[in-house]
């Protein structure tokens, strides 16, 4: 039995006052006008939408919001106004202030940055800034899934084409907004991600997907946001035409609002209609009739953006509908309760009449500026750099010229160029007369002019800059291309502005046909930068170097310049499932990959390790046996480590983990572990983790080679090969990702047991004596210099790091040495360690022995020494004796060459514990990331 609705204050018995709460309206002007004053005082308007045309600056916005609330208060409104704006960041910001309001990346830009936490921080900062000005309702998050990504006007306003990713970022944005004290609005239900446009503005864009298709993709983010507490929802004005679901306008359809949104998806927040002033809707139905239909469909607030005559028509339509019993009072009061409940979450008269304003914004400015820079720096995505053109300083000499080619486009609303354009139009600006005739062209020039200046400031050589239009490649372009030593082309939605696509392809062809003065063909360096939709050339591999910025605000372009000149390493990744071919394989999903956070994820990683071990067949050994979350974290200043997870943000469970290490001493980038929850395999989690790992390693400064398998930490030495079927499967899996397993090197761990009853093989001591070397053991940094010089004769990954750990821990580690008697020069070394050493945590096989044991690690024998095997056996023998002497009963030889002759070690009592295939490749040959 439904609960009886709470009794309303008698003030709401006044029906006109109640009806006012069911409308949201806008107006023209940056200060109070008779138009808006009348709506608030005479018609009891309860919500106001402010747009960029209303907002001059943070200070003026604060004043305007205060004055609007003061008018409502003095007019006797029982509750404050809900004041809402679109503040999506990127190119869609209603409030712009160069000093006090920071610019942040678009939703897709934030998804490219790849951090849910960062998305939350940005959303919270955005909401704090607009809240300081008196705004209490943000029209966000945008929850649309771009199921037809390449031709949709939404572009970067949504996180992408993957419903899980859109959900994750949508909920993060929503939490950030809420935690800053303002209420949220999801849009554009049921989805603007795959609209079909028929041409005329009087034609309604149509959703043709069936309800079942929508449920499998487009509705997922909306459903998740509802479950996480979304405050309000905007229902679009699009048409719907599919089996069992027909509506001329979604927001006027009871099928869409009451049935689908309310009953099937259990949404009980405030529903806001699309603006009824949109041409298709007002011409097809009329604003008065549309208002009645919207309320009857289940909308709680009807939106009318700016026309006073339309707004009056809507007010009259609602009143007539109630008087004629076309709308029940129960429906009206049900909506009122929802609106009042929403307002109670975000405002009160105390708050509404005391906006913090500039004082708070000044305090927020330093941290928000740093956050903006961090977000933009993290979002820039280098999709391809086949010929290693980045950074530009590597390919351009000071005397050489760089050419920048930019399209003529309108500036983004949230840019200084847009503000200057607006101000020049509102004053007697001395700008040329061309502004009045062709403001979009001139403003496009201004947007990218500053980019050219920024590029020029960063280098000693000259930067040439000119624009291009639908007229294509002109002689002036050809002359500049021939003159320049490298070219940067900017595109902005080239899929919808096809002249940009054609121009870029033409320039690419010219660059491919360049010749040196000696007549040799030499490809001229070309970099293409998509500054809006990343889909421009995402799938066109003929564009060898391709970068995406996701918007072209000044802050985004500043970060682009830093990437082009190598001041920052780009870490952004294309969000969603860019490739059409990926979508042909239903099992190939694109998972959200996040950076491992030790504090947040350590316990979950331990649980994942346990799950993997428990999921290992009885006849196989799990390499993770005895490993813990600590086993992967080196905390070594000489090693850059970044680890990745696929996680459930709601339960905090990890579905997959990948560790990466960059050893600066050898320029080696290593994937040290990659494993997935056994219950979630074959869902592409491993693909997503691997591709993120490779992208990250590619960006390391000084990267020379990649390696699959790590000496330190010594968990996975490579592809495990202990079981024939599993070995074939893993070799095939990694081969499909771009690794050449045919060039692998066999490595293994070996173990000798029962040391207390062991004695060296007969005759071995005499054999070792014939090697002509002296053996000893030393401890600590006093002996470091010759040892560290000696190990430089090997370029194996992790050697230096293992030896430095051992030298720093003399109580638990020693260095076994072989020296030439005549001059004392080192010809061989190994590391000896036991369970007290820091190495113990990073070598789980030693823990696996479950008894008193010691380890011998990282042998280095000088090249050219004839008695290689004899010297190595001598060092190992000395180590075994030392471990036995200290009470150990087992000895582990870790990371041994698996192709060697094991007869000598077998005679000493060793057996192979586990085999691996270490795979390496030259980083310069890894020209593209395999599809995930």
UniProtKB/TrEMBL annotation:
Residues 15-341 form the Glycoside hydrolase family 3 N-terminal domain. Gene3D superfamilies: Glycoside hydrolase family 3 C-terminal domain, Glycoside hydrolase, family 3, N-terminal domain. InterPro entries: Acyl_CoA_acyltransferase (IPR016181), GH (IPR017853), Glyco_hydro_3_C_sf (IPR036881), Glyco_hydro_3_N (IPR001764), Glyco_hydro_3_N_sf (IPR036962), GNAT_dom (IPR000182), NagZ_Beta-hexosaminidase (IPR050226). Residues 636-708 form the N-acetyltransferase domain. One of its GO terms (biological process) is carbohydrate metabolic process. GO terms for molecular function: acyltransferase activity, transferring groups other than amino-acyl groups; hydrolase activity, hydrolyzing O-glycosyl compounds. Keywords: Glycoprotein, Glycosidase, Hydrolase. Belongs to the glycosyl hydrolase 3 family. This is Glycoside hydrolase. It comes from Didymosphaeria variabile.
């Amino acid at each position: 039995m439904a609960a009886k609705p709470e009794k309303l204050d008698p003030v709401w018995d006044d029906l006109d006052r109640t009806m006012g709460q069911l409308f949201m309206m806008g107006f023209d002007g940056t200060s109070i006008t008779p138009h808006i004053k009348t709506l608030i005082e005479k018609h009891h308007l309860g919500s106001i939408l402010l747009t960029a045309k209303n907002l001059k600056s943070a200070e003026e916005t604060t004043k305007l919001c205060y004055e609007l609330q003061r008018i409502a208060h003095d007019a006797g409104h029982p509750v404050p106004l809900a004041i809402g704006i679109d503040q999506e960041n990127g190119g869609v910001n209603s409030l712009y202030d160069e000093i006090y309001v920071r610019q942040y990346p678009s939703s897709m830009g934030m998804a490219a940055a790849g951090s849910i936490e960062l998305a939350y921080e940005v959303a919270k900062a955005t909401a704090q800034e607009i809240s300081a000005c008196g705004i209490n309702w943000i029209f966000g998050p945008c929850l649309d899934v771009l199921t037809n990504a390449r031709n949709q006007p939404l572009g970067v306003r949504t996180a992408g084409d993957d419903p899980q990713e859109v959900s994750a970022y949508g909920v993060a944005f929503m939490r950030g907004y809420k935690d800053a004290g303002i209420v949220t609005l999801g849009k554009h239900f049921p989805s603007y991600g795959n609209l079909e446009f028929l041409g005329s503005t009087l034609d309604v864009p149509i959703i043709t997907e069936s309800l079942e298709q929508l449920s499998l993709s487009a509705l997922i983010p909306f459903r998740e946001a509802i479950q996480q507490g979304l405050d309000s929802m905007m229902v679009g004005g699009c048409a719907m035409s599919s089996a069992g679901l027909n509506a001329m306008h979604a927001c006027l359809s009871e099928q869409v609002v009451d049935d689908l949104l309310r009953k099937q998806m259990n949404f009980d927040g405030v529903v806001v209609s699309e603006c009824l002033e949109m041409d298709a809707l007002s011409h097809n139905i009329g604003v008065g009739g549309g208002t009645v239909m919207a309320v009857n469909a289940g909308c709680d607030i009807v939106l009318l953006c700016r026309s006073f005559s339309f707004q009056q028509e809507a007010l009259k339509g609602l009143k007539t509908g109630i008087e004629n019993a076309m709308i029940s009072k129960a429906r009206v009061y049900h909506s009122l309760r929802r609106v009042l409940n929403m307002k109670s979450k975000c405002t009160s008269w105390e708050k509404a009449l005391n906006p913090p304003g500039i004082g708070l914004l000044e305090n927020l400015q330093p941290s928000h500026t740093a956050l903006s820079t961090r977000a933009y720096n993290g979002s820039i995505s280098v999709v391809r750099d086949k010929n290693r053109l980045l950074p530009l300083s590597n390919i351009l000499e000071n005397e050489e010229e760089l050419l920048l080619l930019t399209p003529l486009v309108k500036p983004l609303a949230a840019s200084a160029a847009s503000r200057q354009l607006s101000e020049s139009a509102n004053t007697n600006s001395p700008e040329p007369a061309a502004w009045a005739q062709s403001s979009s062209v001139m403003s496009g020039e201004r947007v990218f002019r500053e980019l050219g200046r920024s590029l020029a400031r960063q280098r000693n050589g000259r930067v040439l800059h000119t624009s291009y239009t639908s007229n294509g490649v002109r002689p002036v372009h050809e002359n500049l291309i021939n003159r320049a030593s490298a070219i940067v082309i900017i595109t902005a939605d080239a899929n919808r502005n096809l002249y940009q696509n054609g121009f870029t392809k033409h320039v690419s062809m010219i660059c491919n046909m360049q010749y040196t003065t000696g007549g040799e063909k030499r490809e001229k360096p070309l970099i293409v930068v998509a500054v809006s939709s990343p889909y421009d050339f995402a799938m066109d591999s003929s564009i060898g170097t391709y970068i995406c910025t996701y918007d072209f605000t000044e802050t985004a372009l500043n970060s682009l310049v830093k990437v082009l000149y190598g001041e920052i390493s780009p870490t952004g990744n294309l969000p969603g499932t860019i490739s059409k071919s990926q979508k042909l394989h239903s099992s190939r999903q694109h998972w959200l990959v996040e950076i491992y956070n030790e504090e947040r994820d350590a316990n979950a990683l331990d649980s994942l390790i346990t799950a993997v071990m428990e999921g290992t067949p009885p006849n196989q050994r799990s390499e993770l046996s005895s490993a813990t979350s600590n086993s992967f974290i080196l905390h070594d200043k000489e090693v850059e480590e970044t680890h990745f997870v696929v996680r459930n943000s709601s339960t905090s469970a990890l579905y997959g983990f990948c560790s990466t290490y960059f050893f600066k001493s050898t320029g080696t980038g290593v994937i040290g572990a990659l494993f997935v929850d056994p219950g979630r395999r074959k869902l592409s989690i491993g693909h997503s983790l691997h591709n993120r790992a490779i992208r990250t390693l590619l960006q390391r400064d000084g990267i020379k080679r990649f390696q699959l398998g790590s000496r330190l930490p010594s968990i996975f030495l490579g592809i495990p090969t202990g079981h024939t079927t599993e070995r074939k499967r893993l070799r095939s899996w990694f081969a499909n990702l771009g690794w050449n397993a045919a060039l692998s090197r066999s490595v293994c761990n070996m173990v000798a047991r029962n040391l207390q009853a062991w004695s060296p093989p007969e005759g071995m001591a005499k054999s070792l004596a014939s090697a002509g070397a002296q053996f000893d053991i030393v401890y600590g940094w006093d002996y470091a210099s010759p040892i560290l010089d000696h190990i430089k004769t090997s370029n194996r990954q992790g050697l230096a790091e293992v030896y430095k750990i051992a030298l720093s821990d003399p109580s638990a580690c020693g260095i076994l040495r072989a020296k030439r008697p005549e001059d004392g020069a080192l010809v061989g070394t190994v590391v000896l360690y036991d369970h007290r050493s820091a190495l113990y945590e990073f070598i789980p096989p030693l823990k696996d022995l479950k008894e008193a044991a010691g380890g011998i690690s990282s042998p280095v024998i000088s090249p050219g020494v004839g008695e290689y095997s004899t010297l190595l056996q001598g060092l190992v023998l000395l180590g075994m004796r030392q471990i036995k002497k200290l009470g150990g009963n087992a000895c582990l030889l870790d990371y041994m060459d698996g192709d060697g002759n094991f007869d000598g070690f077998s005679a000493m009592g060793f057996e192979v514990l586990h085999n691996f295939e270490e795979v390496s490749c030259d980083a310069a040959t890894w020209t593209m990331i395999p599809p995930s």
